[in-house]
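Blinded run. Sample ID left blank on purpose so nobody reads anything into the name before looking at the predicted structure. Input follows.
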Amino acid sequence: MKKYIVTLTKDERKMLDELTSKGRHKSQKILVALALLACEEGEFQKKRSTNKEYPAY
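Blinded prediction complete.
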């Protein structure tokens, strides 16, 4: 069951991508940005990996 559906605009996605790849930021801020990018379901989401693609070892 999904509690929240995250959709980002193109500008929001760009800002989060830049935050995670450039400069120096607090680790908590980077982790939140990565989590938002990972769970985002908007039209600008690139192909997301699934658990089925990575079998348990």
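Unblinding after everyone has recorded impressions. The mean pLDDT is 80.
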